[in-house]
Write a structure and sequence with these properties.
By secondary structure, this protein is mostly helical. About 75% of the residues lie in helices and about 0% in strands.
Length: about 300
């Protein structure tokens, strides 16, 4: 990378200290792509000019690190995810806070994320394992290097997609721009660039771990909610359909009348607790996703 561009990016990062990591990554990616692309285009149009002189004019048009940092800091207010900025159910009493979870968008977003996490986990795991196996298998052939580069590019795209899901459902600010990698002329140079970047490995690790996490999330969410709904439905099934709901030693029995309100109450408490659990899991997973998918 051009030393002047590298210095500009370092200064921009310093000026944006205190901003969200995702905002910093977006700002650095935008600046690097703009400066590199503009420099290449202008040097092609006028190869006789000095590179430093051309870059200075580009920076003057784009803005100094201080100016660009101020612009992103002002825009950061409007980049807060909807779920993170939506009102929370902050009732004064214990019951208000407990049952108010049904009015919390973060809880519903986290629950939806837990339900779909197994599907995304299977997709990510399958893609990573299949792509890695193919890249290694064809590494001895001439087309193996371009295949490996395209695979790593796809991992970057999946990481960006997962970031959009995390931001939309869990309310954690994630990058909206992919990490910019200079477009090297040689495929082998591109491959080295990806393989020596720790962010590539963190993304691959996230994709692999998403499968066990997704299975766990889906199992817990569906099991707890289904159990709670079953306790709520049992009295109605017994009274309306006249079907015994308990079988002990092969003998079917009906719930006594006094236990029906208890069954409904327990089911409601269990479902409500599952929403609090989903929100807690969503908070943890959001921080974990940001740790692996957002550049330092």
């Amino acid at each position: 990378m051009n030393k002047q561009i590298e210095q500009y990016l370092n200064q921009l990062k310093v000026q944006m200290a205190g901003c969200d990591k995702a905002t910093i990554q977006d700002a650095l990616a935008d600046a690097q792509e703009h400066l590199v692309t503009a420099l290449d285009n202008r040097m092609e149009d006028d190869p006789g000019r000095l590179e430093e002189e051309v870059l200075q004019s580009i920076i003057a048009e784009y803005g100094s690190p201080e100016e660009v940092a101020d612009a992103y800091k002002q825009a950061e207010i409007y980049l807060t995810p909807y779920i993170a900025s939506a009102g929370r159910a902050n009732g004064r009493g214990i019951l208000d806070r407990f049952f108010g979870i049904y009015g919390d968008p973060a809880a519903w977003g986290s629950f939806l994320y837990m339900v779909i996490a197994m599907a995304t986990g299977i997709l990510y795991f399958t893609w990573v394992t299949t792509g890695t196996a193919l890249a290694l298998s064809f590494s001895l052939f001439l087309f193996g290097v371009p295949l490996a580069v395209l695979f790593l590019l796809s991992v970057q795209g999946l990481g960006l997609l997962e970031g959009r899901l995390v931001e939309g459902l869990l309310g954690v600010r994630m990058p909206r721009r992919p990490i910019y990698f200079p477009k090297e002329d040689k495929w082998l140079d591109r491959l080295k660039l990806y393989l020596t970047d720790k962010r590539t490995w963190f993304s691959l690790l996230y994709m692999v771990l998403q499968l066990p996490f997704g299975i766990l999330y889906f199992t817990v969410a569906v099991t707890v909610v289904a159990t709670g709904l079953a306790f709520i439905a049992v009295p109605f099934i017994q009274e309306i359909a006249n079907i015994p709901v308990i079988t002990i030693a092969g003998v079917s029995r009906s719930l006594p009348g006094w236990s029906m309100p208890v069954s409904i109450l327990f089911g409601v408490l269990l479902v409500t607790t599952s929403m609090h659990l989903a929100k807690w899991v969503g908070n943890l997973h959001g921080r974990y996703a940001k740790r692996l998918l957002v550049a330092d």
